[in-house]
Amino acid sequence: MAISRTHHAFLLPSPGMGHLIPVLELAKRLVTHKIIPKLTLFYTTLQNSSSSKPETLVLQSAIKENLFDLIQLPPLDLTTKVAPHASSEDKIAVLMHELPLLFVSTISTMNLNPTIIITDFFLCQLLPRLQNLNLPMFAFVPTNAWLLALGLHTPTLDKQIQGEYVNEIEPISIPGCKPIHPHDMFEMLKDRTHRLYHEFIGACEGVALANGIFVNTFHELEPKTLEALGSGGISKVPVYPVGPIVREPSPSPSPSSDEGKRREIVEWLNKQEEESVVYISFGSGYTMSCEEIKEMSLGLELSGNKFVWFVRPPVTKASHDHYLTAGERSGTGSGVVSNVEKSNLFPDEFHRIQSNGIVITDWAPQLDILKHPSIGGFVSHCGWNSVMESVACGVPIIGLPIFADQMMNATMLAEEVGNAIRVEVSPSTNMVQREKLAKAIRKIMDKDDKQGCVMRERAKELKLSAERAWSHHGSSYFALSKILL
Ligand code: UDP
């Protein structure tokens, strides 16, 4: 493709590792694949957020590569807009409202001349306000096509269905797509009286004004849904599958993790048999309770498997939130916890199983772990980035979805894609029964289990498809190039 010398894209991600990581990777690909010659990324963090430290580290390392300019905006302070102990839903709703305002006020005062604007989905309420710039605008949806289809179909569902979607008896249908079990419903659509529901619809209406939508999936993963979305289907604007947008393995160590720890993990994995270890992580935001850690430890013990487990010290208060600040997490209010204090927070069952694996309590070098040949399965909350990373590394998933889009993701993988098994998680306590966890781990890890064998094979097949999608003439590379059409 001929590069235009004049194009300059503005890329606007929203805060949080789950959004920042794929947007940074998208930026890198646009530049390294010579699709866009100049790119400026605008970024803000949430004031006092637990993920601002890894976010800053990831940003710093991206900047060192010198591929694009970064304009760091002041942290977004939501403290005057939302009560400190408000629910995650309240906080996200305020974030979705405030972010576009921050970006509009900043961008309009700058003397820069973008030719293209790409915004994260959470920021799509910005698009109507930017229409007067008369520029091509693209939405980046860092999740899958099925969730995008649900989002774009929500204004129709809003008219068709009277009560709450979660109270429907029958699965909720979306034309041409797999129907959605009401109990799997996307978090933002669970309560139609909540402000978040309306912010979500606002973002979906914004998406409809874009010139195109980039979605982090690829053809072989969701062929039916992508067809249903496409030309004249659910989406009125072109949908381009550009996944898997996963950080490319960097020759240097991951900046977001401690190098000593990373080496220790890799050296330990080097000593294990091929595909014999399970990796466990619930993403960048989730903190377990002591009871959850205890039951999970017992499940791991029962499975008899070796493991690498990324687990934060448990929350110390009764009601726990997915988006605790560092201070709230530690229960100290200060956010500073010594290693001894950290260790004391874990239950005895957890300490007992430690000799059978490696525990990481800070930040895991997830891709280094998933890429390692000793990893045979991933016990995951099914956050979409983790799913894409697992797919790109050919690792089958033991899905324990808890929140947000994770239930839909786990159902899709288990029922449609075929590279995962879903384990029941209690919706009220987020607990998984030790026997069920152990059984699912054994199924995936046991070389003689027929069903497990099919899932492992499927995971390997998907790894190859993912590589093809991002090869020079692959479908995802080609789709991303459409930005200049
Ligand atoms: N991640 C990581 N180390 C950790 C925790 C998370 O590298 O210790 C990365 C992970 O590789 C993924 C992202 O953070 O890229 C988490 O995104 P995901 O969508 O899986 O879950 P979320 O954090 O949004 O719940």
From TrEMBL:
Enzyme category, top tier: transferase
Family: Belongs to the UDP-glycosyltransferase family.
The entry's keywords: Glycosyltransferase, Transferase
Single GO term (MF): UDP-glycosyltransferase activity
S-adenosyl-L-methionine among keywords: no
Record-listed E.C. numbers: 2.4.1.-
InterPro entries the UniProt entry points to: UDP_glucos_trans, UDP_glycos_trans_CS
Name of this chain's protein: Glycosyltransferase
Coiled-coil ranges from the UniProt annotation: none
